[in-house]
C-alpha cells in the first residue's frame, strides 16, 4: 500500500513512462502575403504582442490553424509572468489539438504548471508529449528530460532530478554542458544521505563519481583543507570525469577561503537556570564536532548569559573576546535584541522569531518546525496528495503548530478542509475523528432516510472521500489512539503526517504495529538512521545535533556566504542559507513499518520501481 492514499494517482506511474524534458521553441506560423494584407486592413490590436497573437488565432478557420497562434500567445504571456492566463489558453486551445507544435505546447504547459505549484497536470502533459512520434527525435528527448527535471525539482524529488540530469550530461550540446552540470550538482547536494545510498546502486554512467565527491563534502570530520586534498586525490583517479575538468563551485570557492575561515568563536548560552539542560546538550554537540575535526582548531569562548543582569553585557563580553563569529543566544527575548547590537562580527542565533528582521551579519539556525512542515508538504505532493486536514491536541505547543501548518498551507496553496483540536479523552477523540471525517453528516443522512421511508436502513457510515492526509500535532502515544479510530471509520488509506515533535521516544512494548503505521513524520538524520542513544531523551539528542551543526555552520560560514545555495549534509538535515539569513534544514521523512523506523522516501522509491 502506498504511504499516501492509494486512490490518488501516484506521480511515479506518470513519471516512469517519461523520457525527460526541456526547451520550448516558438512555433509561429508563417503567414502568406494575402493574409498579411487582410490583417493590415483590420482592427487588429497592435499595442500588445500577446493580444495580437490571440486576435490572429481568433481569425483562423479551424482549431488546428489557430493552435500555433494560441501557443505563441501563451509563450509571450509566460515571458510576461502571466502564467495563469497562459495555463488557460494552453488548456483550452493547444493541449488537445493535433498540430505540428503540440509537443512544444505540452512542454510549455508542463513548465507553467510546475511554476504554479501544480505538478500532477505537468507530469501528465509530459507523459502525453513523450508518446507523440516527434518525441523520439534527439532534440526533443533532451527537451523532455530538461522539463521533467524542472518539474521534479519543484516536487523536491531530487533522486529523479539527479537521474535526469546525469542522462542529459551525455546528451546536451557543449554549450549547455556547464548549465546542466550546475543543476546536477545542486540536485546531488539536495539528496539526503539515505537517498545517496539508494542511488549508489544505479548503473548510470558518471553518477558514481558525482556521489563520491558529494560524500567528500558531507564528511563533517574533515577541515576545508582536508576536503580539498581529498578532492584533489579524487581528480587524480578520475581525470576523465566532468567534475575533474570543471569542479563544482563549492570546491573552487573553498580553495580561496583559507584566510576567511574563523579562528575564534564565542558561544552565548544560558547555562545556569531553567535552560541549563538544553544548553548543556547544545554545548556537548559543539564540543563533539570540535574534537572530531582534525587539524588546527579555532579558539572557543563559552559565555553563560545567565551570569549577566542584561543580555547587552553578555554580548559585549563576546565581542571583547575578539571572537570572529558568535554562536547564540538561545532565549527568544535575547534573540529579539540582536538587531540593535550586531556589529561587524557575524552572529548565528540559535532561535528564531515569528517575524525575522533581516540584519547584516545576523543569521538564525534552529529546529524550526516550519522546515519539517515544508518537507512534509513536498513529500505529499510527490505522492499526488492535495487536500489536507489538521488535527491537534489542545496543548499550547500543538495549537501553535496547527497555526504554523495553516499559515504554510496558505503560502504553498495547499487546501485545508478542516482544522480540529480535541480533548485527549476517549469521547474527545471519537468526536474529533467523526467530525473530521464527516461521519456525523453520514449518520445524519442515514437517520433522515430512515425517518422519511419509515424503514430501517442496513448501511454503514462512511468517511469523506475528498481528504488526502491529516496533519497531526501531538505525541506518539496520542497518535496511536487516533490511528485505530481513523481505520475504524473506513479511512485506513488516509495517512497521518507529523513533525518530529511526534517522535518523543521509542514506542512502548505494548504498542501494536498497526497503531503507528501510516504515520509519516520528520526526523533529524542522526535519530532516523538508528544512531540514537537509548538512555538520552530524543529532545536532548536533537539539541546535541543542533549544537554539532551550529559549530559546523560557523566554521563553514564563508562558504555559505560566497556560494549561492551552498548545501551541507549534517546531523539535523541538509542545511542551506536563504536570503533572509535563515539556515533552513531538510530533515528525513520516516515511518514505522513492522515496528521498525524506516525511511519513508526510500519506501516510496521502492514502490515506484515496482509500479
UniProtKB/TrEMBL annotation:
Species, as recorded: Rhodanobacter aciditrophus
Gene3D superfamilies cross-referenced by the UniProt entry: 1.25.40.650, 3.40.50.2300
PANTHER family: PENICILLIN-BINDING PROTEIN ACTIVATOR LPOA
Keywords: Membrane
Transmembrane spans: none
InterPro entries hit by this protein: LpoA, Peripla_BP_I
Highest taxon in the source lineage: Bacteria
Name of this protein: Penicillin-binding protein activator
Amino acid at each position: 500500500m502506498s504511504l499516501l492514499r492509494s486512490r490518488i494517482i501516484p506521480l511515479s506511474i506518470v513519471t516512469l513512462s517519461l523520457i525527460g524534458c526541456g526547451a520550448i521553441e516558438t512555433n509561429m506560423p508563417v503567414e502568406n502575403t494575402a493574409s498579411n494584407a487582410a490583417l493590415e486592413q483590420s482592427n487588429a490590436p497592435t499595442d500588445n504582442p500577446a493580444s495580437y497573437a490571440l486576435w490572429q488565432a481568433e481569425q483562423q478557420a479551424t482549431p488546428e490553424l489557430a493552435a500555433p497562434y494560441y501557443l505563441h500567445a501563451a509563450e509571450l504571456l509566460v515571458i510576461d509572468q502571466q502564467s495563469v492566463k497562459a495555463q488557460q489558453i494552453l488548456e483550452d486551445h493547444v493541449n488537445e489539438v493535433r498540430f505540428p507544435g503540440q509537443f512544444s505546447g505540452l512542454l510549455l504547459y508542463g513548465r507553467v504548471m510546475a511554476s504554479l505549484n501544480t505538478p500532477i497536470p505537468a507530469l501528465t502533459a509530459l507523459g502525453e508529449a513523450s508518446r507523440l512520434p516527434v518525441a523520439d527525435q534527439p532534440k526533443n528527448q533532451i527537451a523532455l528530460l530538461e522539463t521533467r527535471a524542472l518539474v521534479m525539482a519543484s516536487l523536491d524529488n531530487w533522486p529523479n532530478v539527479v537521474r535526469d540530469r546525469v542522462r542529459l550530461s551525455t546528451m546536451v550540446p557543449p554549450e549547455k554542458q556547464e548549465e546542466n552540470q550546475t543543476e546536477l550538482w545542486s540536485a546531488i547536494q539536495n539528496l539526503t544521505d539515505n537517498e545517496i545510498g539508494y542511488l549508489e546502486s544505479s548503473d548510470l554512467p558518471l553518477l558514481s563519481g558525482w556521489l563520491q565527491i558529494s560524500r567528500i563534502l558531507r564528511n563533517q570530520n574533515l577541515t576545508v583543507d582536508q576536503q580539498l586534498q581529498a578532492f584533489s586525490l579524487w581528480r587524480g583517479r578520475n581525470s576523465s570525469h566532468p567534475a575533474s575538468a570543471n569542479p563544482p563551485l563549492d570546491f573552487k570557492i573553498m580553495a580561496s577561503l583559507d584566510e576567511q575561515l574563523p579562528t575564534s568563536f564565542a558561544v552565548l548560552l544560558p547555562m545556569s537556570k531553567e535552560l541549563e539542560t538544553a544548553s548543556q546538550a547544545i554545548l556537548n554537540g559543539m564540543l563533539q564536532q570540535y574534537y572530531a575535526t582534525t587539524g588546527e582548531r579555532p579558539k572557543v569562548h563559552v559565555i553563560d548569559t545567565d551570569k549577566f543582569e542584561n543580555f547587552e553585557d553578555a554580548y559585549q563580553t563576546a565581542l571583547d573576546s575578539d571572537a570572529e563569529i558568535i554562536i547564540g543566544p538561545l532565549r527568544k527575548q535575547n534573540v529579539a535584541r540582536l538587531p540593535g547590537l550586531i556589529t561587524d562580527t557575524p552572529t548565528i542565533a540559535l532561535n528564531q522569531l515569528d517575524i525575522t528582521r533581516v540584519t547584516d551579519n545576523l543569521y538564525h539556525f534552529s529546529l524550526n518546525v516550519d522546515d519539517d512542515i515544508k518537507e512534509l508538504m513536498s513529500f505529499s505532493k510527490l505522492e499526488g496528495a492535495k487536500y489536507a486536514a489538521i488535527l491537534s491536541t489542545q496543548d499550547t505547543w500543538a495549537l501553535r503548530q496547527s497555526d504554523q501548518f495553516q499559515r504554510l498551507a496558505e503560502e504553498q496553496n495547499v487546501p485545508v478542509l478542516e482544522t480540529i483540536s480535541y480533548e485527549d479523552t476517549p469521547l474527545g477523540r471519537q468526536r474529533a475523528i467523526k467530525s473530521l471525517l464527516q461521519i456525523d453528516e453520514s449518520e445524519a443522512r442515514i437517520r433522515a432516510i430512515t425517518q422519511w421511508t419509515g424503514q430501517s436502513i442496513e448501511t454503514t457510515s462512511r468517511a469523506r472521500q475528498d481528504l488526502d492526509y491529516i496533519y497531526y500535532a501531538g505525541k506518539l502515544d496520542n497518535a496511536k489512539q487516533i490511528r485505530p479510530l481513523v481505520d475504524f471509520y473506513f479511512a485506513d488509506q488516509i495517512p497521518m503526517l507529523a513533525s518530529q515533535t511526534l517522535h518523543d521516544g521509542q514506542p512502548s512494548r505494548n504498542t501494536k504495529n498497526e497503531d503507528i503505521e501510516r504515520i509519516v513524520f520528520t526526523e533529524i538524520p542522526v535519530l532516523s538512521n538508528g544512531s540514537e542513544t537509548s538512555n538520552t531523551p530524543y529532545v536532548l539528542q536533537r539539541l546535541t545535533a543542533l549544537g554539532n551543526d551550529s559549530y559546523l555552520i560557523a566554521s563553514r560560514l564563508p562558504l555559505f556566504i560566497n556560494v549561492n545555495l551552498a548545501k551541507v549534509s549534517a546531523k539535523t538535515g541538509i542545511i542551506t542559507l536563504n536570503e533572509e539569513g535563515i539556515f533552513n534544514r531538510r530533515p528525513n521523512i520516516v515511518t514505522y513499518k513492522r515496528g521498525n523506523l524506516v525511511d519513508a522516501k526510500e519506501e516510496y522509491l521502492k514502490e515506484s520501481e515496482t509500479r
